[in-house]
Amino acid sequence: MTASPSADSTRRTPAGDSGRADLRERAFTALTAARARTALLTDAVSDRDLTAQHSPLMSPLVWDLAHIGNQEELWLLRNVAGHDSLHPEIDPLYDAFQHPRAERPKLPLLGPAEARRYAAEVRGRVFDLLERTALEGSALLDDGFAFGMIAQHEQQHDETMLITHQLRPGEPVLTAPDPGPPQGPPPAAAEVLVPGGPFTMGTSAEPWSLDNERPAHDRDTGAFWIDTVPVTNSAYQAFVADGGYRDERWWAPEGWDQIHRHGIEAPLFWRREAGQWLRRRFGVTEPVPADEPVLHVSWYEADAYARWAGRRLPTEAEWEKAARHDPATGRSTRYPWGDEDPTPAHANLGQRHLRPAPAGSYPAGASPLGVRQLIGDVWEWTSSDFLPYPGFRAFPYREYSEVFFGPEHKVLRGGSFAVDPVACRGTFRNWDLPVRRQIFSGFRTARDA
Ligand SMILES: [Fe+2]
Protein backbone atom coordinates (compact mmCIF):
# COMPACT_ATOMS: atom_id res chain seq x y z
CA MET A 1 0.00 0.00 0.00
CA THR A 2 1.33 3.42 -0.83
CA ALA A 3 0.35 6.82 0.35
CA SER A 4 0.95 9.92 -1.70
CA PRO A 5 -0.01 13.56 -1.46
CA SER A 6 -2.93 12.77 -3.74
CA ALA A 7 -4.28 10.58 -0.92
CA ASP A 8 -4.97 13.77 1.05
CA SER A 9 -8.73 14.20 1.03
CA THR A 10 -9.82 17.17 -0.98
CA ARG A 11 -12.47 19.65 -0.03
CA ARG A 12 -12.37 22.28 -2.74
CA THR A 13 -15.41 24.42 -3.01
CA PRO A 14 -17.04 24.11 -6.43
CA ALA A 15 -16.29 27.13 -8.60
CA GLY A 16 -19.11 29.32 -9.85
CA ASP A 17 -21.82 31.40 -8.21
CA SER A 18 -23.24 28.69 -5.95
CA GLY A 19 -19.75 27.75 -4.74
CA ARG A 20 -18.97 31.38 -3.94
CA ALA A 21 -22.29 31.79 -2.14
CA ASP A 22 -21.45 28.69 -0.04
CA LEU A 23 -18.05 30.15 0.80
CA ARG A 24 -19.56 33.49 1.76
CA GLU A 25 -22.05 31.72 3.98
CA ARG A 26 -19.29 29.64 5.56
CA ALA A 27 -17.13 32.68 6.25
CA PHE A 28 -20.08 34.68 7.59
CA THR A 29 -21.12 31.82 9.91
CA ALA A 30 -17.56 31.30 11.19
CA LEU A 31 -17.01 35.00 11.88
CA THR A 32 -20.39 35.36 13.57
CA ALA A 33 -19.83 32.31 15.80
CA ALA A 34 -16.41 33.61 16.85
CA ARG A 35 -17.83 37.00 17.78
CA ALA A 36 -20.66 35.45 19.82
CA ARG A 37 -18.05 33.53 21.83
CA THR A 38 -15.88 36.63 22.26
CA ALA A 39 -18.93 38.48 23.57
CA LEU A 40 -19.76 35.66 25.97
CA LEU A 41 -16.24 35.64 27.40
CA THR A 42 -15.92 39.41 27.72
CA ASP A 43 -19.50 40.23 28.83
CA ALA A 44 -19.25 37.69 31.66
CA VAL A 45 -16.98 39.90 33.75
CA SER A 46 -16.95 43.50 34.98
CA ASP A 47 -14.99 46.29 33.28
CA ARG A 48 -12.52 46.11 36.14
CA ASP A 49 -12.01 42.42 35.50
CA LEU A 50 -11.61 43.07 31.77
CA THR A 51 -8.75 45.48 32.30
CA ALA A 52 -7.02 43.55 35.13
CA GLN A 53 -4.15 41.20 34.46
CA HIS A 54 -5.07 37.95 36.18
CA SER A 55 -1.71 36.29 35.48
CA PRO A 56 1.59 37.58 34.05
CA LEU A 57 1.22 34.71 31.54
CA MET A 58 -1.87 36.31 30.05
CA SER A 59 -3.02 39.62 28.58
CA PRO A 60 -5.85 41.61 30.13
CA LEU A 61 -9.03 40.40 28.38
CA VAL A 62 -9.57 43.88 26.96
CA TRP A 63 -6.25 43.57 25.08
CA ASP A 64 -7.40 40.34 23.40
CA LEU A 65 -10.68 42.02 22.45
CA ALA A 66 -9.09 44.98 20.65
CA HIS A 67 -6.30 42.79 19.22
CA ILE A 68 -8.96 40.57 17.61
CA GLY A 69 -10.39 43.66 15.90
CA ASN A 70 -6.96 44.98 14.98
CA GLN A 71 -5.82 41.74 13.28
CA GLU A 72 -9.12 41.59 11.42
CA GLU A 73 -8.60 45.16 10.24
CA LEU A 74 -4.99 44.46 9.25
CA TRP A 75 -5.68 41.37 7.17
CA LEU A 76 -9.14 41.97 5.74
CA LEU A 77 -9.53 45.74 5.50
CA ARG A 78 -5.93 46.76 4.84
CA ASN A 79 -4.30 43.78 3.09
CA VAL A 80 -7.32 42.42 1.23
CA ALA A 81 -9.39 45.58 0.62
CA GLY A 82 -6.47 48.05 0.51
CA HIS A 83 -7.96 50.49 3.05
CA ASP A 84 -5.87 52.77 5.24
CA SER A 85 -5.58 52.09 8.95
CA LEU A 86 -8.72 53.20 10.84
CA HIS A 87 -6.76 54.30 13.92
CA PRO A 88 -3.02 54.22 13.16
CA GLU A 89 -2.13 55.37 16.67
CA ILE A 90 -3.40 52.13 18.25
CA ASP A 91 -1.87 49.68 15.79
CA PRO A 92 1.46 49.25 17.66
CA LEU A 93 -0.36 48.57 20.96
CA TYR A 94 -1.98 45.46 19.56
CA ASP A 95 1.01 44.00 17.77
CA ALA A 96 1.74 40.84 19.78
CA PHE A 97 5.40 40.93 18.72
CA GLN A 98 6.04 44.47 19.93
CA HIS A 99 4.67 43.94 23.43
CA PRO A 100 5.01 40.72 25.44
CA ARG A 101 1.97 39.77 27.52
CA ALA A 102 3.51 40.84 30.82
CA GLU A 103 3.85 44.48 29.72
CA ARG A 104 0.46 44.86 28.01
CA PRO A 105 -1.42 46.13 31.12
CA LYS A 106 0.87 49.20 31.23
CA LEU A 107 0.03 50.24 27.67
CA PRO A 108 -2.52 53.02 26.98
CA LEU A 109 -5.03 50.41 25.79
CA LEU A 110 -8.56 51.12 24.59
CA GLY A 111 -11.04 50.79 27.44
CA PRO A 112 -13.76 48.11 27.37
CA ALA A 113 -16.40 50.28 25.64
CA GLU A 114 -13.91 51.63 23.08
CA ALA A 115 -12.52 48.16 22.38
CA ARG A 116 -16.02 46.77 21.78
CA ARG A 117 -16.89 49.70 19.51
CA TYR A 118 -13.67 49.30 17.53
CA ALA A 119 -14.11 45.53 17.02
CA ALA A 120 -17.72 46.12 15.93
CA GLU A 121 -16.71 48.91 13.53
CA VAL A 122 -14.16 46.64 11.86
CA ARG A 123 -16.63 43.76 11.69
CA GLY A 124 -19.29 45.89 10.00
CA ARG A 125 -16.83 46.86 7.27
CA VAL A 126 -15.64 43.26 6.94
CA PHE A 127 -19.20 42.05 6.30
CA ASP A 128 -19.58 44.70 3.58
CA LEU A 129 -16.32 43.46 2.05
CA LEU A 130 -17.38 39.81 2.28
CA GLU A 131 -20.57 40.61 0.36
CA ARG A 132 -18.91 42.33 -2.58
CA THR A 133 -15.47 40.77 -2.93
CA ALA A 134 -14.73 37.91 -5.31
CA LEU A 135 -13.37 35.06 -3.21
CA GLU A 136 -10.64 34.28 -5.71
CA GLY A 137 -7.76 35.86 -7.57
CA SER A 138 -5.12 35.95 -4.85
CA ALA A 139 -3.72 33.52 -2.31
CA LEU A 140 -5.42 35.48 0.49
CA LEU A 141 -8.82 35.47 -1.24
CA ASP A 142 -8.91 32.00 -2.82
CA ASP A 143 -11.48 29.84 -1.02
CA GLY A 144 -12.04 32.77 1.36
CA PHE A 145 -8.77 31.92 3.10
CA ALA A 146 -8.21 35.30 4.79
CA PHE A 147 -11.75 35.26 6.22
CA GLY A 148 -11.21 31.72 7.50
CA MET A 149 -7.83 32.66 8.95
CA ILE A 150 -9.39 35.58 10.83
CA ALA A 151 -12.25 33.44 12.18
CA GLN A 152 -9.64 30.95 13.41
CA HIS A 153 -7.55 33.74 14.91
CA GLU A 154 -10.53 35.04 16.89
CA GLN A 155 -11.42 31.53 18.09
CA GLN A 156 -7.80 30.97 19.15
CA HIS A 157 -7.94 34.16 21.20
CA ASP A 158 -11.25 32.98 22.64
CA GLU A 159 -9.40 29.88 23.84
CA THR A 160 -6.68 32.14 25.28
CA MET A 161 -9.37 34.21 27.02
CA LEU A 162 -10.87 31.00 28.43
CA ILE A 163 -7.42 30.22 29.91
CA THR A 164 -7.50 33.70 31.48
CA HIS A 165 -10.92 32.84 32.93
CA GLN A 166 -9.43 29.64 34.39
CA LEU A 167 -6.57 31.61 35.98
CA ARG A 168 -8.82 34.38 37.24
CA PRO A 169 -9.54 34.32 40.99
CA GLY A 170 -13.05 34.84 42.33
CA GLU A 171 -16.53 33.51 41.85
CA PRO A 172 -17.46 31.42 38.80
CA VAL A 173 -18.97 33.47 35.94
CA LEU A 174 -19.17 30.86 33.17
CA THR A 175 -21.55 27.92 33.04
CA ALA A 176 -22.11 25.07 30.62
CA PRO A 177 -23.75 21.65 30.85
CA ASP A 178 -21.51 18.70 31.73
CA PRO A 179 -20.78 16.19 28.97
CA GLY A 180 -22.32 13.31 30.97
CA PRO A 181 -21.20 9.67 30.95
CA PRO A 182 -19.89 8.04 27.76
CA GLN A 183 -22.60 6.98 25.31
CA GLY A 184 -22.26 3.65 23.55
CA PRO A 185 -19.94 0.72 24.07
CA PRO A 186 -16.65 1.16 25.95
CA PRO A 187 -13.43 0.69 23.94
CA ALA A 188 -12.50 -2.94 23.35
CA ALA A 189 -8.87 -2.56 24.48
CA ALA A 190 -6.61 -0.10 26.29
CA GLU A 191 -4.31 0.33 23.30
CA VAL A 192 -4.48 0.00 19.54
CA LEU A 193 -1.85 -1.31 17.10
CA VAL A 194 -1.13 1.07 14.23
CA PRO A 195 0.63 -0.70 11.35
CA GLY A 196 4.00 0.50 10.10
CA GLY A 197 4.50 2.04 6.64
CA PRO A 198 3.90 5.32 4.85
CA PHE A 199 0.93 7.62 5.20
CA THR A 200 0.03 11.13 4.05
CA MET A 201 0.81 13.74 6.68
CA GLY A 202 -0.27 17.38 6.43
CA THR A 203 -2.56 18.79 3.76
CA SER A 204 -2.43 20.62 0.45
CA ALA A 205 -6.19 20.54 -0.01
CA GLU A 206 -7.89 21.82 3.15
CA PRO A 207 -8.87 25.38 2.11
CA TRP A 208 -8.51 27.06 5.51
CA SER A 209 -5.46 25.10 6.70
CA LEU A 210 -2.60 27.25 7.95
CA ASP A 211 0.91 27.36 6.58
CA ASN A 212 2.44 24.96 9.12
CA GLU A 213 -0.06 22.19 8.18
CA ARG A 214 1.11 22.32 4.58
CA PRO A 215 2.03 20.65 2.28
CA ALA A 216 0.77 17.06 2.23
CA HIS A 217 3.78 14.74 2.17
CA ASP A 218 4.66 11.08 2.67
CA ARG A 219 5.78 10.07 6.13
CA ASP A 220 6.91 6.64 7.27
CA THR A 221 6.44 5.26 10.77
CA GLY A 222 7.23 1.91 12.31
CA ALA A 223 4.37 -0.10 13.79
CA PHE A 224 3.37 1.25 17.20
CA TRP A 225 0.79 0.88 19.94
CA ILE A 226 -1.11 3.95 21.09
CA ASP A 227 -3.53 4.45 24.00
CA THR A 228 -7.17 4.13 22.96
CA VAL A 229 -8.07 7.11 25.16
CA PRO A 230 -6.13 9.98 26.77
CA VAL A 231 -4.43 9.32 30.13
CA THR A 232 -7.01 9.80 32.90
CA ASN A 233 -6.82 11.56 36.24
CA SER A 234 -6.96 8.23 38.08
CA ALA A 235 -4.03 6.85 36.06
CA TYR A 236 -2.12 10.08 36.68
CA GLN A 237 -2.93 9.94 40.40
CA ALA A 238 -1.26 6.52 40.53
CA PHE A 239 1.93 8.17 39.22
CA VAL A 240 1.65 10.90 41.86
CA ALA A 241 0.93 8.37 44.64
CA ASP A 242 3.88 6.26 43.53
CA GLY A 243 6.19 9.21 44.22
CA GLY A 244 6.54 10.09 40.54
CA TYR A 245 7.31 13.74 41.33
CA ARG A 246 10.11 12.71 43.71
CA ASP A 247 11.91 10.24 41.45
CA GLU A 248 14.48 11.86 39.18
CA ARG A 249 14.62 8.78 36.93
CA TRP A 250 11.41 9.78 35.14
CA TRP A 251 12.24 13.42 34.44
CA ALA A 252 14.06 15.27 31.71
CA PRO A 253 16.69 17.43 33.49
CA GLU A 254 14.89 20.74 32.72
CA GLY A 255 11.60 19.25 33.94
CA TRP A 256 13.23 18.06 37.18
CA ASP A 257 14.59 21.62 37.65
CA GLN A 258 11.18 23.16 36.99
CA ILE A 259 9.23 21.03 39.47
CA HIS A 260 11.83 21.76 42.16
CA ARG A 261 12.06 25.47 41.49
CA HIS A 262 8.28 25.84 41.68
CA GLY A 263 7.45 23.12 44.22
CA ILE A 264 5.25 21.29 41.71
CA GLU A 265 3.82 17.96 42.85
CA ALA A 266 0.62 17.60 40.86
CA PRO A 267 -1.11 19.08 37.79
CA LEU A 268 -1.81 22.81 37.89
CA PHE A 269 -5.00 23.74 39.81
CA TRP A 270 -4.87 20.52 41.91
CA ARG A 271 -4.58 20.57 45.68
CA ARG A 272 -4.63 17.90 48.34
CA GLU A 273 -7.09 18.20 51.19
CA ALA A 274 -8.03 15.59 53.81
CA GLY A 275 -6.47 12.79 51.78
CA GLN A 276 -8.30 13.77 48.59
CA TRP A 277 -7.24 15.54 45.41
CA LEU A 278 -9.35 18.60 44.61
CA ARG A 279 -9.11 20.87 41.60
CA ARG A 280 -10.22 24.38 40.79
CA ARG A 281 -12.08 24.68 37.50
CA PHE A 282 -13.43 28.07 36.37
CA GLY A 283 -13.94 29.19 39.95
CA VAL A 284 -15.42 25.90 41.26
CA THR A 285 -13.48 23.62 43.61
CA GLU A 286 -14.40 19.96 43.15
CA PRO A 287 -12.92 16.47 43.66
CA VAL A 288 -10.68 15.50 40.75
CA PRO A 289 -12.91 13.26 38.58
CA ALA A 290 -11.20 9.87 38.18
CA ASP A 291 -12.34 9.03 34.66
CA GLU A 292 -11.64 12.38 32.95
CA PRO A 293 -8.52 12.94 30.85
CA VAL A 294 -5.83 14.65 32.94
CA LEU A 295 -5.62 18.39 32.21
CA HIS A 296 -3.11 21.18 32.85
CA VAL A 297 0.09 19.16 32.71
CA SER A 298 3.34 20.37 31.18
CA TRP A 299 5.23 18.45 28.50
CA TYR A 300 7.71 17.47 31.22
CA GLU A 301 4.95 16.00 33.38
CA ALA A 302 3.49 14.10 30.41
CA ASP A 303 6.93 12.80 29.47
CA ALA A 304 7.73 11.75 33.08
CA TYR A 305 4.41 9.91 33.44
CA ALA A 306 5.02 8.05 30.18
CA ARG A 307 8.48 6.90 31.33
CA TRP A 308 7.11 5.83 34.71
CA ALA A 309 4.47 3.79 32.86
CA GLY A 310 7.18 2.12 30.75
CA ARG A 311 5.92 3.90 27.67
CA ARG A 312 6.62 7.15 25.76
CA LEU A 313 4.78 10.05 24.19
CA PRO A 314 3.77 9.46 20.55
CA THR A 315 5.68 11.40 17.93
CA GLU A 316 3.67 14.00 16.05
CA ALA A 317 3.69 11.75 12.96
CA GLU A 318 2.41 8.81 15.00
CA TRP A 319 -0.36 10.95 16.44
CA GLU A 320 -1.47 12.14 13.00
CA LYS A 321 -1.27 8.64 11.56
CA ALA A 322 -3.45 7.32 14.40
CA ALA A 323 -5.89 10.16 13.74
CA ARG A 324 -6.09 10.26 9.93
CA HIS A 325 -4.74 7.12 8.31
CA ASP A 326 -7.33 4.59 7.17
CA PRO A 327 -5.47 1.28 6.67
CA ALA A 328 -8.34 -0.08 4.57
CA THR A 329 -8.03 2.59 1.88
CA GLY A 330 -4.53 4.00 2.47
CA ARG A 331 -6.11 7.45 2.53
CA SER A 332 -5.67 10.17 5.16
CA THR A 333 -9.05 11.59 6.17
CA ARG A 334 -9.73 15.08 7.52
CA TYR A 335 -10.74 13.73 10.94
CA PRO A 336 -10.50 10.35 12.69
CA TRP A 337 -14.14 9.57 11.78
CA GLY A 338 -13.82 10.57 8.11
CA ASP A 339 -14.18 13.77 6.12
CA GLU A 340 -17.37 15.11 7.68
CA ASP A 341 -17.15 18.34 9.74
CA PRO A 342 -17.31 17.72 13.52
CA THR A 343 -20.74 17.39 15.14
CA PRO A 344 -21.51 17.09 18.89
CA ALA A 345 -21.59 13.29 18.40
CA HIS A 346 -17.96 13.22 17.25
CA ALA A 347 -16.04 15.30 19.75
CA ASN A 348 -16.08 17.69 22.70
CA LEU A 349 -15.25 20.99 20.99
CA GLY A 350 -16.29 24.63 20.97
CA GLN A 351 -16.60 25.28 24.71
CA ARG A 352 -19.89 23.37 24.61
CA HIS A 353 -18.73 21.98 27.95
CA LEU A 354 -16.28 23.54 30.37
CA ARG A 355 -14.39 20.29 30.89
CA PRO A 356 -13.14 17.23 29.03
CA ALA A 357 -15.59 14.34 28.64
CA PRO A 358 -14.86 11.07 30.47
CA ALA A 359 -12.35 8.77 28.79
CA GLY A 360 -14.11 6.44 26.38
CA SER A 361 -16.65 9.02 25.23
CA TYR A 362 -17.53 9.72 21.58
CA PRO A 363 -17.40 6.24 19.99
CA ALA A 364 -18.79 7.95 16.83
CA GLY A 365 -15.59 10.01 16.69
CA ALA A 366 -13.22 7.03 16.82
CA SER A 367 -10.59 6.42 14.14
CA PRO A 368 -10.92 3.41 11.82
CA LEU A 369 -8.63 1.50 14.23
CA GLY A 370 -10.77 2.51 17.22
CA VAL A 371 -8.69 5.29 18.81
CA ARG A 372 -11.01 7.70 20.64
CA GLN A 373 -11.04 11.37 21.63
CA LEU A 374 -8.14 12.34 19.40
CA ILE A 375 -10.11 15.46 18.53
CA GLY A 376 -11.38 17.69 21.35
CA ASP A 377 -11.33 17.17 25.14
CA VAL A 378 -7.61 17.88 25.79
CA TRP A 379 -4.71 19.06 23.65
CA GLU A 380 -2.27 16.15 23.47
CA TRP A 381 1.44 16.68 23.92
CA THR A 382 3.59 14.80 21.43
CA SER A 383 7.31 14.05 21.77
CA SER A 384 8.10 16.17 18.69
CA ASP A 385 9.67 19.59 18.30
CA PHE A 386 7.72 22.11 16.21
CA LEU A 387 9.38 21.94 12.79
CA PRO A 388 8.39 22.82 9.23
CA TYR A 389 7.19 20.11 6.85
CA PRO A 390 9.28 19.50 3.73
CA GLY A 391 8.25 22.19 1.22
CA PHE A 392 6.98 24.60 3.91
CA ARG A 393 6.30 28.13 2.73
CA ALA A 394 5.50 30.89 5.23
CA PHE A 395 2.04 32.32 4.51
CA PRO A 396 0.75 34.94 4.92
CA TYR A 397 3.40 36.12 7.37
CA ARG A 398 6.56 34.67 8.93
CA GLU A 399 5.36 35.40 12.45
CA TYR A 400 2.42 33.01 12.16
CA SER A 401 4.60 29.87 12.47
CA GLU A 402 8.07 30.18 11.05
CA VAL A 403 9.61 32.18 13.89
CA PHE A 404 8.50 29.48 16.36
CA PHE A 405 10.11 26.53 14.55
CA GLY A 406 12.87 24.85 16.53
CA PRO A 407 13.58 22.70 19.56
CA GLU A 408 12.17 25.19 22.12
CA HIS A 409 8.56 24.33 21.26
CA LYS A 410 6.81 20.97 21.51
CA VAL A 411 3.83 20.08 19.34
CA LEU A 412 0.33 19.53 20.75
CA ARG A 413 -2.40 17.93 18.65
CA GLY A 414 -6.12 17.39 18.43
CA GLY A 415 -7.62 20.46 20.10
CA SER A 416 -9.42 20.65 23.44
CA PHE A 417 -12.94 21.30 24.69
CA ALA A 418 -11.96 24.99 24.37
CA VAL A 419 -11.20 24.79 20.63
CA ASP A 420 -13.81 25.64 18.03
CA PRO A 421 -14.26 23.24 15.10
CA VAL A 422 -13.15 26.00 12.68
CA ALA A 423 -9.67 25.84 14.27
CA CYS A 424 -9.52 22.06 14.64
CA ARG A 425 -8.57 19.46 12.04
CA GLY A 426 -6.67 16.19 11.89
CA THR A 427 -3.80 18.23 10.47
CA PHE A 428 -3.97 21.21 12.86
CA ARG A 429 -0.72 21.85 14.78
CA ASN A 430 -0.37 23.71 18.06
CA TRP A 431 2.93 24.35 19.82
CA ASP A 432 4.10 25.60 23.17
CA LEU A 433 6.99 25.66 25.60
CA PRO A 434 7.43 22.34 27.46
CA VAL A 435 6.98 24.12 30.83
CA ARG A 436 3.48 25.41 29.98
CA ARG A 437 0.60 23.99 32.05
CA GLN A 438 -2.09 26.67 32.17
CA ILE A 439 -3.13 25.54 28.67
CA PHE A 440 -5.80 22.84 28.23
CA SER A 441 -3.16 20.15 27.82
CA GLY A 442 -3.21 16.42 28.46
CA PHE A 443 -1.68 13.47 26.61
CA ARG A 444 -1.82 9.82 25.66
CA THR A 445 1.08 7.37 25.55
CA ALA A 446 2.53 4.99 22.97
CA ARG A 447 5.13 2.24 22.61
CA ASP A 448 6.99 0.56 19.77
CA ALA A 449 5.34 -2.60 18.44
FE1 LIG B 1 -3.24 37.10 17.85
Characterization of the model:
The chain has about 450 residues and is of the alpha+beta class. It has nine helices and 14 strands. A hairpin with a 4-residue loop joins strand 8 (about 325) and strand 9 (about 330). The longest helix is centred in the first third of the chain and has 27 residues, at about 15-45. The structure holds fe (ii) ion (FE2). The site of fe (ii) ion has 5 residues, from helix 3 and helix 5.
Q: Tags for this entry?
A:
binds fe (ii) ion; 14% strand
Nutshell version of this structure?
With 449 residues, the protein is an alpha+beta fold.
List the domain count as a whole number. Answer: 2
Strand residue content: 5-15%
In terms of per-residue confidence, which ranges show pLDDT below 50 for 5 or more consecutive residues? Answer: 1-6
CA-based gyration radius:
22 Å
Order of secondary-structure elements: HHHHHEEEEHHEEEHHEEEEEEE
CATH superfamily of the largest domain: paralog of FGE (formylglycine-generating enzyme)
User: For the terminal residues, how far apart are their CA atoms?
Assistant: 19 Å
Q: Level of helix content?
A: 25-40%
- Shape, principal axes of CA atoms: globular
The small molecules bound here are: fe (ii) ion
Output mean pLDDT. 95
Instruction: Write the CATH architecture name of the largest domain.
Output: Alpha-Beta Complex
CATH class of the largest domain: Alpha Beta
Assembly type: single chain
CATH fold category name of the largest domain: paralog of FGE (formylglycine-generating enzyme)
* Main beta-sheet strand count, sense and barrel state: 4 strands, mixed
Total count of strands:
14
- Please state the structural category: alpha+beta
Helix count, DSSP H or I runs of 4 or more residues: 9
